[in-house]
Design goal:
Chain lengths: 240, 218
């Protein structure tokens, strides 16, 4: 379970998150939606402390992430993250990308890490690319490897920051399919996305952010048909 | 008139200087690399004191003549510490300390040129800072800066000729000695020039090959 209480984040004088609170239960799939610059990425990055919150408390399971005494590296092992631009390690093969952290952070043996990586590669449909370097992959393939790399750490939560926004349209589907099956397998997921159909279909709840505030927190059926706030209505009219 | 016959018998003697020059250059490069990496890490790190020290070190070694640094090390160490230092170790030390300053700037630039996302992805995976630097960031930085490093290496190879001022028997010094013994300075120095030039060509060639090999993941 992830609990976010009164989360504030400022960059200098610019307050980007203005007191966000929400609870995300195990196995829930959350879609975060909102205009560009509304603080979606910042919210996501606060959860694994890629950004340090200015104020507020974030709890993941038993760990109070925002407590200075918490070993944040340990927390990050437990929180997978997938970025818009993949950020695969270009000098490592697909297999090495996936096994590096399990072997070097969790101390798992090479045999075991490779076996797990092979299993994940089959899961994302890229087993035949295991020895390729990232530059030989298409964007969709890179993103699927990035998902496998995050999953290799056995995280209890997965964060996605616009995972398909940098992809050509024909590759969006293959990545969304992987994410859908991950959701079906019971992974807790927080997804920043502009893929409205995907959000409607896969998410349990929509969090609508605007101007650093959590304007709406509703199930997709309601959000997409009769949003509560005027701001969400306006936003949906623009994107749908 | 040019009379190469007068210096031909001395060519083997001059060629022996290649070993001396290479020893100085290799020793200095290894030292410069280690020092350069350490200084670069200090410069990009969060510890202000280390950053100031590393920046100060760099500005000193870049802001004064290399020949002065060489002579200070060769003459001042015996004077200050009452130990003798031979020309070779003095040369390696001076060139190593000096190129450490230059290499640290090259490496710093190389590290900064690595996509910030690489660090983000590493952090998100819980990879500790030291491992991230060693296995993720530096290997990518090294690839970016290979051309600049090779350049530094080649410059060092040529600039090493100034060790002649402290009497190390490198190519330059030997050519000078030969010239002095029979007053055919020009011929002897031209032979030294040819040797340096060929070494530069070979190093450039090897550097290109190395770059090619390192870019196989492109
Ligand atoms: N590292 C940063 N430094 C300064 N300002 C930032 C930084 N990251 C984000 N911001 C600002 O915070 C606001 C929200 O950004 P972001 O969370 O990326 O929005 P979104 O993901 O919803 O598009 C933007 O105005 C952006 O300029
Ligand atoms: Mg964003």
């Amino acid at each position: 379970m992830i609990k976010v209480e009164n989360l504030h984040k400022s960059f200098g004088k610019n307050e980007v998150l203005k007191g966000i609170s929400t609870v995300i239960k195990e196995k829930e799939v959350i879609a975060i939606i909102g205009p560009s610059g509304s603080g979606k990425s910042t919210f996501l990055r606060c959860i694994n402390l890629l950004e340090e919150p200015t104020n507020g408390v974030i709890t993941i399971g038993k760990d109070i992430v925002t407590d200075k005494r918490t070993n944040i590296m340990k927390v990050r092992e437990n929180v997978g993250m997938v970025f818009q631009h993949f950020y695969l390690f270009p000098h490592k093969t697909v297999l090495e990308n996936i096994t590096y952290a399990p072997r070097n952070v969790q101390g798992i043996s090479k045999t075991e890490a490779n076996a797990k990586a092979d299993e994940l590669l089959r899961q994302v449909g890229l087993y035949e690319k295991r020895d390729a370097y990232p530059n030989r992959l298409s964007g969709g393939q890179k993103q699927r490897v990035a998902i496998a790399r995050a999953l290799a750490m056995n995280p209890s939560v997965m964060l996605f920051d616009e995972p398909t926004s940098a992809l050509d349209p024909e590759m969006v589907k293959e990545v969304l399919a992987v994410m859908k099956s991950l959701a079906d397998s019971g992974m807790t997921m927080i997804i920043v996305t502009h893929e409205m159909n995907f959000a409607r279909e896969v998410a349990d709840r929509i969090l609508f952010l605007d101007g650093g505030q959590l304007v709406e927190d509703t199930p997709p059926a309601q959000f997409f048909t009769e949003p509560k706030s005027a701001r969400a209505k306006e936003f949906l009219e623009k994107v749908l | 008139m040019l009379d190469f016959n007068a210096v031909v018998p001395s060519i083997p003697y001059i060629l022996k200087g290649i070993g001396v020059t290479l020893q100085i250059v290799l020793g200095a490069t290894i030292m410069g690399m280690v020092l350069g990496i350490l200084l670069a890490l200090c410069k990009i790190g969060k510890v202000t004191v280390l950053r100031i020290i590393a920046d100060f070190y760099t500005s000193i070694f870049r802001g004064t003549p290399l020949v002065l640094q060489l002579m200070i090390i060769y003459y001042a160490i015996p004077q200050l510490f009452d130990i003798n230092i031979d020309p070779m170790p003095a040369a390696i030390l001076a060139f190593g300390l000096n190129s450490g300053a230059y290499i640290s700037e090259i490496i710093r630039g190389g590290i900064n040129a690595v996509d910030k996302g690489q660090q983000e992805a590493s952090l998100a995976l819980g990879i500790p800072y030291a491992k991230m630097m060693k296995d993720i960031i530096l290997p990518q930085a090294m690839k970016n800066i290979m051309p600049a490093l090779m350049n530094e290496f080649i410059t060092l190879n040529k600039e090493s000729a100034i060790v002649t001022v402290i009497g190390a028997l490198d190519i330059m010094r030997r050519a000078y000695v030969v010239g002095g013994s029979n007053y055919h300075y020009l011929e002897a120095l031209m032979i030294a020039g040819v040797i340096y030039y060929i070494m530069t060509l070979i190093l450039t060639f090897l550097g290109k090959k190395l770059e090619k090999r390192m870019s196989r993941s492109d």
